[in-house]
Each structure stands twice: as structure tokens, then as C-alpha cells.
């Protein structure tokens, strides 16, 4: 199984450091150090979310991935996610092809509809076109990925391309494109229809309830004539790791609560409580918060349910001290990864 990390590059007041707020430049320097450490420890991938808000610093994640490509050797570099509905597929392709060249074939596109809507008014799109935009732009992106001269008739939300070849060309052929979903059956079916790997974000509730959705993905792939064994499935979740289980939860909770409560206030949710947090951190909950052994046990238990090929851990939800995050990455790479590899009889592949 591939084990990796993803981040939204949060930059909010640090509750464990007296509410200190880093400058965006400082936060990005720390982020690159975190990616570099993940690479040194042999983790398989690092994903970076696209957000256009004051509490995140990754409004241009591909630029950050390009910087990371120069400081890493093996780790695969992805978004988590590219909000394709409000992007230009041609520019998305060119940016990722360039990162693929810079990294010698380690770039991945993870396309999704995103968890926030700020990019729609920012780039002049109507939120009512949410689904149509994604469908049409995904089709165009995959057409470009085929290579050669692109003849595209245009659509309601894309312009015609009259047989023009798109440059630059990536190292990988094809350049990997994953579809990230939050549990919507239509999105799962779309990934299967196009023959694209699926990344399932499980950030709440009871994870085992998502097992039928993964089965639906594989069944749909068979129905449209695709081999499900050729279509990787990934799962991503919130979490934090410390040597001691209680320490992990005590460190993670203030930032997690602040971030989720802030977002919840915007969306009409009640504040996150410690009881809710602790429930999510139990073996059957969605959060991977605890000691290395607890994380190993939970990954393996979910593997029994999903038979997935990739697991992505979000470190962190909300802003945590950089040294605490680095320690968590160290534990993930030195203790969790080897134990999972041994239990499954596999080695997480590098690029």
C-alpha cells in the first residue's frame, strides 16, 4: 500500500503557541520542509489542496509543488485537489506537465470539485453550473492527455480547440489523473466510467459505511468494460500522530476544533466538541489520531473493508506547531509505514 500525506497549507493562529500567526512566507518554508522530510522517509506521495481563503496559503498549489520537486527525489507530487470546475484545463495540463518534467515523472493531477466555493466568483463562474463545469472540463483534460493534436468542439463552458498540439509534454505517459470524491455516488460512477483512480475522502461518520461506495465503483467499472484491478482506490482522512495516544489527541484537538468550528460557523454547523473529536478518534471513527500502533491498526482494519491501494493522512487540520508536525511525519515514516508494509507483505513503491 502507498502511504502518503496531504495538506491544505493551513495558516491560522496556532493555539498551542499563544495564538501566534506565521507570515505566509514562513508557512510555505515550513511546508516545503515537511514535504522534504516525507520524501526522505520514503513516503509515497504528498498532496496539496487548492484554496482561495485567508486561512490557507496554497492558492497556487502547483507552484508550491514545483518548488518541492527541486527539493525531493522520489515522492510523488499531487494536488488534493485541483478545483477543475473553475480552472482552465489547458493551463492545468501545462502546469502539471511542467512539474512532471521538473520532478522527472513524479507529478499527479487529483481533480475534484473542492470543499469550498470561493474559486467560482473569483474566476467568474456560476455556482449553478457546478456539475456541468466539472464534467465538461474533465472531458477536455482527458482529451488533452491523449496527446497529439487536440480537436475539441467546445461546449457550454469550454472553447473549441481546432486541432492544436498542447505543450509541454510530460515525462509520464499518461500523466496520472485521479478523481477525488467525498461520497457522492455520481462522482464515484464518473471516475469508473472514465477509468480513473478514485480517492475517497472520509472525514466524518463511520468509515465502514463507505465500503458499499467502493464496491459500487468497482462494479461500475466492470459494467463499462474496465478491469477494476487496474483502477487504484485511495482513502484519505484527518489525523495526527504522537508517541503517546493521549498526547496525539491533546495536541491535535485545539487546532482541529478551531478549524472545524470556524468552517462550521460559515455553514451553519454547531461548534466541534471534544466528545465528538474523541468519538472520531475511536477505532471505528474517521480520524487517525493516536500512537503509531493505533494508526497502523486502523489502516489495516480499513484495508479489510476497502482493499484500497493508497492511504493519505492530512496533517494537520488547523495550524499546529511545525516541530510537532515534523515529529508526526517522522513517526509515520519510521514506524507506521514499515509496520503496514510488513503486515500487507508489500513495499510502498517510490516513483
Tell me what you see in this structure:
The protein has 351 residues and is an alpha/beta fold. Helices cover 43% and strands 16% of the residues. It has eleven helices and twelve strands. It has helices at residues 24-40, 61-69, 89-102, 119-122, 130-145, 185-194, 211-223, 245-267, 274-280, 292-306, 322-344, and strands spanning 2-7, 45-48, 76-79, 82-83, 107-112, 149-152, 161-165, 177-181, 198-201, 233-241, 288-290, 310-314. The strands form two sheets. The chain has an eight-stranded parallel beta barrel, surrounded by eight helices. The longest helix has 23 residues, at 245-267. It is globular and about 60 Å long. The mean pLDDT is 96.
Secondary structure topology:
Blueprint: E1 2-7, H1 24-40, E2 45-48, H2 61-69, E3 76-79, E4 82-83, H3 89-102, E5 107-112, H4 119-122, H5 130-145, E6 149-152, E7 161-165, E8 177-181, H6 185-194, E9 198-201, H7 211-223, E10 233-241, H8 245-267, H9 274-280, E11 288-290, H10 292-306, E12 310-314, H11 322-344
Parallel strand pairs: 1-2, 1-12, 2-3, 3-5, 4-5, 5-8, 8-9, 9-10, 10-11, 10-12
Antiparallel strand pairs: 6-7
Helix pairs in contact: 1-11, 2-3, 3-5, 6-7, 10-11
Summarize the structure.
The chain is of the alpha/beta class and 351 residues long. The chain is built from 11 helices and 12 strands.
Count up the helices: 11
Radius of gyration: 19 Å
Order of helices and strands, N to C? EHEHEEHEHHEEEHEHEHHEHEH
Mean pLDDT metric: 96
Number of strands: 12
Q: Level of helix content? A: 40-55%
Q: Structural class of the helices, strands and pairings?
A: alpha/beta
Strand order within the widest beta sheet: 1-2-3-5-8-9-10-12
Q: Which descriptor suits the 3D outline?
A: globular
- Note the gap between the termini: 14 Å
- Let me know the largest β-sheet: 8 strands, parallel, barrel
Unreliable spans are none
Strand content: 15-25%
